[in-house]
């Protein structure tokens, strides 16, 4: 069994993806992805719906099993048949489009259930860490409320706090603002920005080009299961080199523009 060390003082996790393929029957979603995320780096994945971005993220956390290829996280091979997935996932936090909070539990209980069950923390230790993370996202005063009593943006901030209670070395974000009202998007992005500035390694699927330009070290544009273009965020977003990237960004950055030749 390959173990993932739980040394909190070691360097943040990096990610290496080599020749990754994933198919669902005849539908090949990932077609040989090669990618690196250095420790402490923020990489944003952009591209049209169905380009494979979310599937790639789920493969990194082994929520999906690749058909071929290799993934290493923090130097440990996530795709090895004998990998200890539970140990590996303790060091990877993931935030989804939907908040996935337990509706019958308070915010505090939502944030303590995994540390208590997985890390075997005492109630007091888990609650202390949960309150620290809820304070980090500005919601400590709502610790005893249930999800239905919070806005969507507040619930997503709790979901981030819940992931942080495990002290992950790597954070995966799968379009975390896509289900939010426009007024609440900024609060969630601000927390992600703070995490990036604190040196958290992050792989982010997003349609928020302003966030990607400002926060990401690199942007990777995917189309139909392949990496089409990647580079420094400002360069890819402002001066894309590939025609498909240019077309995508033109449509995203100028959504009211109508090209009569299309």
Automatic annotation (TrEMBL):
Cross-referenced PANTHER family: AMINO ACID IMPORT ATP-BINDING PROTEIN, GLUTAMATE_ASPARTATE IMPORT ATP-BINDING PROTEIN GLTL
The GO terms this record gives for MF are: ATP binding
Q: Which PROSITE patterns match?
A: ABC_TRANSPORTER_1, ABC_TRANSPORTER_2
Compartments it resides in: Cell membrane
Q: Spell out the protein name for this chain.
A: Amino acid ABC transporter ATP-binding protein
- Member of which family? Belongs to the ABC transporter superfamily.
Q: Which UniProt keywords apply?
A: Amino-acid transport, ATP-binding, Cell membrane, Membrane, Nucleotide-binding, Transport
Q: Which organism is it from?
A: Nesterenkonia aerolata
Q: How does it sit in the membrane?
A: Peripheral membrane protein
Limits of the ABC transporter domain: 15-249
Chief place where the protein resides: membrane
């Amino acid at each position: 069994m390959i173990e993932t060390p739980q040394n909190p003082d070691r360097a943040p996790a990096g990610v290496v993806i080599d020749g990754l393929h994933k198919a669902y029957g005849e539908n090949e979603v990932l077609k040989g992805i090669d990618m690196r995320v250095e420790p402490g780096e923020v990489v944003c994945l952009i591209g049209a719906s169905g380009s494979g971005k979310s599937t790639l993220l789920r493969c990194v956390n082994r929520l999906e099993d690749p058909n071929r290829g290799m993934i290493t996280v923090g130097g440990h091979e996530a795709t090895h048949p004998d990998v200890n997935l539970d140990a590996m996932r303790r060091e990877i936090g993931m935030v989804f489009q939907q908040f996935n909070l337990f509706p019958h539990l308070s915010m505090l209980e939502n944030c303590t259930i995994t540390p208590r069950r997985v890390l075997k923390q005492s109630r007091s230790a888990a609650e202390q860490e949960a309150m620290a993370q809820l304070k980090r996202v500005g919601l400590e005063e709502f610790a005893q409320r249930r999800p239905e009593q919070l806005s969507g943006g507040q619930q997503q901030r709790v979901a981030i706090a819940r992931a942080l209670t495990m002290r992950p070395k790597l954070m995966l974000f799968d379009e975390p603002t896509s289900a939010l009202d426009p007024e609440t998007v900024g609060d969630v992005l601000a927390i992600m920005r703070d995490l990036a500035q604190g040196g958290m390694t992050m792989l982010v699927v997003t349609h928020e080009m302003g966030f990607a330009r400002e926060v990401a070290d690199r942007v990777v544009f995917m189309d139909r299961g392949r990496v089409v273009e990647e580079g420094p965020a400002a360069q890819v977003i402002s001066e894309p080199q590939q025609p498909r990237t240019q077309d995508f960004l033109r449509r995203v950055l100028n959504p009211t523009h109508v090209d009569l030749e299309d």
